[in-house]
Amino acid sequence: MCGIVGYIGAKNCVPILIEGLKRLEYRGYDSAGLGLINSDHCEVIKNKGKVAELEKLVHQKNIQSSLGIGHTRWATHGEPSVINAHPHVNKEKTLFLIHNGIIENYLSLKKGLEVEGYQFVSETDTEVLAHLIDHYLKLKNSLFHAVRYALNEVEGTYGIAVIYNGEKDKIVVAKKGSPLVIGIGENENYIASDVTALIAYTKQVVYLEDGEIAEITANSFKTKTILDEDIIKEINQVEVGIDDITKGGYPHFMLKEIMDQPGSIFNSMRGRLVFDEGISKLGGLQGFEERILNSRRIIISACGTSWHAGLVGEYMLEQYTGIPTEVDYASEFRYRNPIITKDDTVIFISQSGETADTLAALKEAKKKGALCLGVCNVVGSSIARESHAGVYIHAGPEIGVASTKAFTAQLVVFSLITLLIARSKSLSLQQGQEIICEMQNLTKKIETILKQNEIIEKIAEQYVDSKNFLYLGRGYNFPVALEGALKLKEISYIHAEGYPAAEMKHGPIALIDDNMPVVFIATKDYTYDKVVSNIQEVRARKGRILAIISEDDDQIEKMVDHVIRVPQTHSMLMPILTVIPLQLLAYHIAVKKGLNVDQPRNLAKSVTVE
Fold first, then answer.
1. Residue 605 domain-assigned?
2. Annotated catalytic residue: which of 46, 170, 489, 605?
3. Tens digits of per-residue pLDDT, 270-298?
4. Which one of the listed residues 2, 13, 372, 376 is annotated catalytic?
5. What confidence tens digit (pLDDT) does each residue in 236-247 have?
6. 138 annotated active-site
7. pTM, whole model, 2 decimals?
8. 282, 264, 288: which is closest to 351 by C-alpha?
9. Separation of first and last alpha carbons in the chain
10. Domain range for residue 556?
């Protein structure tokens, strides 16, 4: 996690760095800091808390500089504090370093440096790297080579940026396991951990790969490996615009992104459906269709919300392709020595394309010869580049920490992949066209759900003081129950659990009383009668019931306290609709509790460390 930004050129970099940190604050907001070097002096300014607190300090100092780096932190080693905030410095305070990642061997490196007389003031692993680079600088190396030599001793992950008062014309950056991008300008250059920090200034970027190091001046950049091998890098054009990363008049990014879903759903399927043939076309999988079709098994690996999308994908793929499919937590995948063969296809899902556990699982599957496919939102991300092939979800930038539109776009992509495979197997033309018809109607159906926002807000008022929630669903709607519970936990800090509705009798029913809200996803499908029975069981124990039901349902409303109606659609597409009321419910409960829904405590958007 953590946000990194830097600038070198002729302008005053301070407002550029502050604005960049604001754009990156979804990556971490425990503390923030700037390192600035100009012709007169060098200075570090840092503070505990959010970027707004740092901004106040900066304004008081009224400092200007044309070379600087900035950082917003999500704490790993050491609690949030001014001392532990980045940048970290050498003893002379002439070298400034910011870091995203974890130095796994920092204790052994620290002991060696202490023997040499280095003293440490913070609890972080990052400070070790600042002193290690200083050690190599004192051996008469340039900054570039000092960083390179230091990184050859490091075990772990890093995205770093370093500036040094002895070489005021450059920034040195390097990457292994944590994202880093160079922004190319005219007589000025930028660096960041995410292109969202750069797009107000440039659309031309260079993505660093693992094991690469770059020296950046105002007019040029050079890249090598940390083993000193030269590399020629391609300059990429970024399509994201500044409007995509602003709130657009909404009070929170999360609400904007929920309301964006008619458009994000449309974009995720645009140009990919061929009604006349009842098929989907996915250019990112071109040339790999036959291998996917003949897979002995499909494995889906992901974390968090993306894992829930994978569960829905499992239901889709097994029902319509007949290929055995399983879903794995990426964080567990490589640690249990999974049995993977060259006949397997493994799909890795990550909104950011930088999730550390998912990226590590991908590398493990590649080693074992599986076909590795990425399902990502961020173009040019590490998982997108590391995969053999893949599909972008095209949801647009998602800034709110709690994922909403990325989840529904991931479900659309799984529908497209399922359609692609199934039509080559047993799915008929008519069935394919029926699915496409329903997919094309999703945007209008989502709009009808979003029009109930005020109704859902009023329902939320009834549950603001609840301490626990239970979410229940069956079939395709079981993963929706998990996702609804996760959303509530993430942003309202209310304990919530999702279960298959039938599992309620195997334990959770003991929790039900008149203080326990129970959310049922109870739309009309092949599990409907069973879910109605489960509702009756909760009702008999005086549980407070909120049900997500089909538009034409006149039965369940009589049994429950509140209902939210959603249009009917094809069963495998139903989760795309049923999850949206749960997103809004979580949002409104959190807002009414006075919480920051875009930056929930202890969480960050992109988990780039283990």
1. no
2. 605
3. 999 999 999 999 999 999 999 999 999 99
4. 2
5. 888 777 777 788
6. no
7. 0.80
8. 264
9. 10
10. 448-597
